[in-house]
Write the structure tokens for this entry.
Amino acid sequence: MIMAMRFDVLTLFPEIIKSYTNESIIGNALAESLIEMNSFNPRDYSLDKHKKVDATPYGGGAGMLLQIQPFLDCFLDLAKQSKTSLCNLKLEDYYPKGIESFVSPHLNDRDYEVIMFSPRGERLNQAMIKDFASKKQIVMLCGRYEGFDERLRNIVSKEVSLGDFVLTGGELPALTVIDAVTRVLPDVLGDDHSAIAESFNSALDILEISLDEFTKAEKSKLLSELEIYGVKDLNELGQTQLIEHPHFTRPADFRSYKVPEILKSGDHKRIALWRLKEAFRITYNDKANLM
């Protein structure tokens, strides 16, 4: 039996996570046990009598920082419950002699990921999402206020950024990862091809049919049309990531804005080529090559 992908979110606002993940595709994946969702509130681990989890920064400055103790103890508790190699990490791994001497306890071939959302992080993209989907467990730390005590970075295996802007907390980035990863897991979308043909996949995936179905003359014509986008060889299509082509549905004519005739032709080869060329046009913002 395949182990369901496990998502663990450390957040001060667990209801934000629950309200989103109980609906639509993610809700269905939960109901069918394709994924497992857990929310942990670090306030429950605070040693402060008022359950505070933040304090003023040493050295002064505006805002409050999230303290290491509630988040670390919360993380270690969920790590003990883990069925991945995360459960093998030891408490002493998180108390180095100093930040500069710290060596991450996370192995390169780990079957989990511990993510902190931060402006320092690597920009999230589809390739990263697919890598996350290959894991068995994803743990995410959601920040608030001015962020985390620097020492909490010791437990992190990967820092991730959504972009060069500031959000109120880490819950939206966490939900973004959960949503994107869930979509590419087997059986979640029903038709697994749906995830393959989406944006940021390779040109060959978007083409949907094999190049072997095209004649030598058709391949040569396609290559000449794609040359303006820097494609020198059709073998490059497998390495070219594209934004998905346009989609249309009924009615065929809406206030004189008509569906392209080729999509109603029934010629699957011509339709596939049109979609591929449109994907290139949109990806490279080619306004000269209009429909």
Notes: The chain has two domains: 5-184, 197-283. The mean pLDDT is 90. Residues 268-283 form the longest helix (16 residues). The CA atoms of residues 196 and 205 lie 6 Å apart.
